[in-house]
Structure of Glucanase:
Amino acid sequence: MRRRLLALAAALSSLPLALAAAPSAHAADPTTMTNGFYVDPDSSAKRWVAGNPGDGRTPAINASIANTPTARWFGSWSGTIGAATGAYVGAADARDKLPLLVAYNIYNRDYCGGHSAGGASSPSAYASWIAQFAGGIAGRPAVVVLEPDSLGDYGCMNQAQIDEREGMLTGALAEFNRQAPNTWVYLDAGNPAWASAATMARRLHEAGLRQAHGFSLNVSNYLTTAENTAYGAAVNSELGARYGYTKPFVVDTSRNGNGSNGQWCNPSGRRIGTPTQLGGGAEMLLWIKVPGESDGNCGVGTGTSAGQFLPEVAYKMIYGY
């Protein structure tokens, strides 16, 4: 595993002070410590391909989805969380690859939407869970997306609940800083259709964004990369103007190849987007949601549960119909 330090000083020296990117809490760049992104060998798409070798859709799903580096989501279903994250990043590290992980277990998760409701049983239970999550990664290189939807999901929450949530996220970031020095953590910032850039900048800052490497956009959504990069720039403009710093951001491109039709829950006619890579108008374009996994009991996934792999949906996403 290659280990080189990220040269922040030179990159930041030419930026105006008010708009300089806030230094990451981590000295190392995990993308330079590894040789490409890790393909989850046990993703829902991989399991379906392995179990259906004779299906006519299998070659396309295998080539276009199952072998693209995609994030693995961790929650209450993951068992002993430190062991689970440790095993996953350990397997990636043994192959000199960079793993993508999603922490998705915050107390009162999806409180307003409901399709993915659940999470830890209390704020203290979450604090323990996320501390073990970070401890499992330890010093190995990784990328973590922290709690998708958590900062967009305020519509039905009172101020005390909002304060509680932001406190949990701030505490989570502190744990990664303390225990996982070679992990880049992106605090999720929803998507351009959810909250204004000014509102999201304030929520990010109040949830501890200074401690994170950056923020993530479009997780499990369908908005185009161009829409997201413009929004990310607008959020950074607000952060710079209000708080004196900016942050890198990543975009989930797994299902945005045809953009959005205005629906977020299993809409028809969507298409896979640009595979996981560095750059693309953001710091990274990532597949965070596995194409073909259901958003819940809705749309073309009626009768299914969130996270269930739907091969016909996956197949149609490859071709955009």
